[in-house]
Structures are given as structure tokens and as C-alpha cells.
Amino acid sequence: MPDKIPLRAIDAKRALKKIADPEKAKVLRGFFKTGKGEYGAGDKFLGVVVPKIRTITQEFKNLSPEEVSKLLQSKYHEERLTALLILVLKFKSADEKGKREIFNLYNRNIKQINNWDLVDLTAPNIIGEYLKKKDRLLLYKYAKSEDLWERRIAIISTFTFIKDGDCEDTLKISEKLLKDKSDLIHKACGWMLREVGKRCGENIEEEFLQKHHKTMPRTMLRYAIERLPEEKRQLYLKK
């Protein structure tokens, strides 16, 4: 029998374009703020929703790293997301050498990970997982970056640590991002602080809140206190 022809990035692109929906693409362009001056300015969409992207991801999970890299360079949001979700699948089943290679590929292409869904669906599963038992200085480097998405990667990657009851880096990075000007960072930090309270203990979250609630961005505070009793929430909101 002839050898099976290897899957290529172009094949994944064709599969996505077959199920593209121009009307949905218009909705997604608005949802992900692609207008001039907005955080997703200039991004292009095919109009494919995440459940369908996950189906395509399974179909193309055996793409070689080289072909995944090609897919990740796409101008289309859904094609980049497909590439990143393939990397997540590969990472889960890889040995240590393979995990390192995927981690490095992810970081080499960091500029392609340029919207909140691309970050949130992949950073904890690759960056966070790889750094669980390693030096985490990279996250502090990203936390200082001028690039919004690198800063979001820094804080969202710590979700993996929180799930293991390790909240120190979340608190430290949130502290470094207290003066961040982006609402997307305020939301991300508030979300992670809420998870600290849920998984590491409300007392640990409240230590942070008692120290910073008077100066932290309002959005960050609101996200952080969502799970607290109403009486406590009102106390924190009365700066």
C-alpha cells in the first residue's frame, strides 16, 4: 500500500473554510473588537465557532510541528486558534522533550497569540503546565511587557498553579499589574484572584484585597469579590 500522505496546514485551512459562515464572521469581528483602535484591530474571521474548531482540531491533531507553525501564521483568527489547540493536544501526550519543544514553539510565536480567547484557551495548558515545576521568571518578563497579550499570558498561565493550590505567583503578578491601563488585564487579574479565593482559601485572597482594594482598578476588584458574601462585597466596594 502507498504511504499515507501527511496532513498539511493547507488541508486544515480548507476544512475550516468549508464550514465558514460570513454572517457569523461579522458577529465575531464585533465581539472580538476588531475596529480601528480596539484591542483586536484588524483581525480577520472566517465565522467558525469554537465547538466546530475543536472538531477540526481533533481531525488535524497529527499535523507536524512545522505545519502547525505555518497554520499559526494565518491572518485568520480561527486558523490560529486551531493551531494553538492542536499544540495543546500534542502537549498533553508528549514526553518531556516534546513538551519543551511545544513550549518553545509557543513562545517563538507569541505575537500570533493576540486575543483573549487565544490566550485563555491555551496559556494555562502549555505555559502553565510546562512551568509547574520549573523557574517561572518568564511570566514576570511577560508581566512587564508592553504587549497586552503577553501580560495576559503572564497572569492567566498561573491558573494551572492555582488548581494545585499554589497561589504565590498569581498574587505577585496581580500586584505587578495593579496599575495596568487595560480593562482586559483588570478582568484577568480579578478572575485569577477569585480563583485564589476558591481554591487556595478566602483568607489568602482577602489578605491581598485588604492590602490593595482601595487602589486596585474597580473592574479587577469587582471580578475578584464575586464569590464573597454580599456584606463583604459591599464593604470592599466602599473605598
* Gyration radius, rounded: 19 Å
Q: The biggest beta sheet, please? A: none
Proportion of beta-strand residues: under 5%
User: Shape, please?
Assistant: globular
Structural class assignment: mainly alpha
Our measurement of the CA-to-CA distance between the termini, rounded to an integer number of angstroms, reads 73 Å
Number of strands: 0
Number of helical regions: 16
What does the average pLDDT come to? Answer: 96
Provide the succession of SSEs: HHHHHHHHHHHHHHHH
Give the low-confidence spans. Answer: none
The residue fraction in helices comes out at: 55-70%
Write the layout of secondary structure elements.
Elements: H1 9-18, H2 22-31, H3 50-59, H4 65-72, H5 77-93, H6 96-108, H7 116-120, H8 123-131, H9 137-143, H10 148-156, H11 159-163, H12 168-176, H13 183-199, H14 202-212, H15 218-224, H16 230-237
Helix pairs in contact: 1-4, 3-5, 4-5, 5-6, 9-10, 10-13, 12-13, 13-14, 13-15
